[in-house]
């Protein structure tokens, strides 16, 4: 992971406010010699924060994705007719899928997460690079393995239980976050998954608000307990399933109309736009400008996902919505793009087990 010193952060902030400043004036403002200033600028160029002479800033990241990446172990019980069990292992996690599919839509994408110095860490990093995701800000550490998540499902692909090893994510603090201010300030949009430690989540939210960068938060079903309702205040967009929306508003979300009602409640708490996914019905978006409701078209011939959005594809849908907005689509078009990406991704497989292999 690229590190930036406090002095370099100070210099970079000055340059962003005044790109035409001379090295003499910069040195005087910082209180160091011109030669020392030149060294710091050279280091910022080497680290990728400045692209070269003239202080052209590296704002090509487009979207910064922050969240956990997992080694996903999906185990199918042997309760079916043939009595056989199956175990699939592949990269996964909301941040992994978001970054890959955003980059696949031509959006320059950087990913910040924590990996282990192990074989799976290398495999995941290689897959991300192959898919044009900037991995410069991945934290590779040797204290813990790359985060792992084990999901046990039955023959109907219904989740029985899930456990995860998230120890590595606890290292996403302190010195490891020193580059976040610069990264957030240079991106067009910050996309976060709530699977990161709550302290990091709120710290980065503060950075984004200070830099006036729009934030999209993907609220995962398993990571809602740490979220406070006042965390929603000032967010550009939140994306979640109906189960999560119902939990946040102490209500039931049984259909798209219920999704609209809960979305408006969350709008009143400060979230500019709220996207609610009902896996067996469709997607609704509520906001000050408009309300959009888009039913889902069935994905035929795919075992376990006929006529619904599978849990594995909600993150792909999120990437499609964000991509559509950044490409200038209206909300309905962005939702349709997200649905299209999610159903296409699922529909390319004959069964859910292959979804893991495709990641």
Write the layout of secondary structure elements.
Layout lengths: L5 H12 L5 H8 L3 H13 L16 E4 L3 E7 L9 E7 L1 H11 L4 E4 L1 E3 L2 H12 L2 E2 L4 E3 L6 E6 L5 E7 L14 H7 L2 E5 L4 H14 L3 E4 L18 E5 H8 L6 H13 L4 E6 L3 E6 L3 E5 L18 H13 L4 H17 L5 H6 L1
Parallel strand pairs: 1-4, 1-10, 2-8, 4-6, 5-7, 10-11, 11-12, 12-13
Antiparallel strand pairs: 2-3, 8-9, 13-14, 14-15
Helix pairs in contact: 1-3, 2-3, 4-10, 6-7, 8-9, 10-11
Describe the structure.
This protein is α/β, with parallel strands linked by helices. The chain has two domains: 6-46, Arc Repressor Mutant, subunit A; 63-358, Ribokinase (UDP-N-acetylmuramoyl-L-alanine:D-glutamate ligase, 3-Layer(aba) Sandwich), CATH 3.40.1190.20. Helices cover 37% and strands 21% of the residues. It has helices at residues 6-17, 23-30, 34-46, 94-104, 119-130, 180-186, 198-211, 242-249, 256-268, 314-326, 331-347, 353-358, and strands spanning 63-66, 70-76, 86-92, 109-112, 114-116, 133-134, 139-141, 148-153, 159-165, 189-193, 215-218, 237-241, 273-278, 282-287, 291-295. It has a nine-stranded mixed sheet, with helices on both faces. A four-stranded mixed sheet has the order 3-2-8-9. α7 (198-211) links the parallel β10 (189-193) and β11 (215-218). It is globular, with a radius of gyration of 21 Å. Residues 299-307 have low confidence and may be disordered.
